[in-house]
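new request in #modeling-help
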Amino acid sequence: MSKYLLETEGLTKTFPLADGSSVHAVENVSIQVNHSETLAIVGESGCGKSTLANLVCRLLDPTSGRVKLNGEDITSLNTTAMRPYRREMQMIFQDPYASLDPRRTVGDSVSEPLLIHGQAKRGAELQDRVASLFSKVGLQEDDMERFPHQFSGGQRQRVCIARALTLAPKLVIADESVSALDVSVQAQVINLMMDLQDEMKLSYLFITHDLAVVERMAHRVAVMYLGQVVEIGPRAAVFENPTHSYTRKLLDAAPIADPRQRRERPLLTGEIPSPRWPKGEAPQLVNLVEVGDGHLVAKE
Ligand SMILES: Nc1ncnc2c1ncn2[C@@H]1O[C@H](COP(=O)(O)OP(=O)(O)O)[C@@H](O)[C@H]1O
Ligand SMILES: [Mg+2]
């Protein structure tokens, strides 16, 4: 077993635009996720979080840099070669409605990965496996026969979690997966995800703009700004000793008070500079320096 479950090395994604300029969405990102650990990626809209998630699970090819899963370099694998690794990492998105087929029962949607990967045949065995997944995520067996529109938002997200877990992945990439839920429902789904982490030894790459969620769930936190990680470290170090000026701004914008008030407002109100650069120009790469145990901060 490799030391890290997930490792990225200098991961970079640039989107060239028609006028010759380009968007530097993710720039030289090197992160590690340990086994059974939650690494939260935080930062404002447009800082490159979703692009990073898509690079990690190989939905996008990087411009440069590498992705390693359990020590194996998966950066250049084609679809067929990626197949066994696909089972190891699953994604959960913000809008469970969009990721479920409205015309199929949710039981069918959760069965699908098992059938596609030849892990089960139709029949009683499949039924039992899906039923046990439903109970794991706090849904009833009867729910398998229902359609997505017959559920609340929180229940639908539970269905998506069940589907993500069908193939017993090691890494779950959650992209704003609880951001659209009401605070009380959100707390229940977060508790469920934490219980499942213990039970199934899951690692989460947990992407969110919501610092209250990070405080609750994350073991480690990476702060992204304009495509680059500007601060990364254990949750307590980042929250109690925020060192980069941008991290401080983020925390100031979200005073540690009532989480109900916190999530109502945007993270920051100031203008974020554009990650779009004219032809031939590129952002300056930050230089991370260790300021504490595993706590790294970009030099300013
Ligand atoms: N396919 C694309 N083509 C051009 N620009 C893109 C594309 N995808 C994302 N971007 C840009 O890359 C930047 C990062 O986007 P994204 O990763 O979605 O950020 P976040 O998830 O943090 O909101 C944004 O400026 C966005 O507009
Ligand atoms: Mg996003």
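bot summary: Residues 97-168 form one domain.
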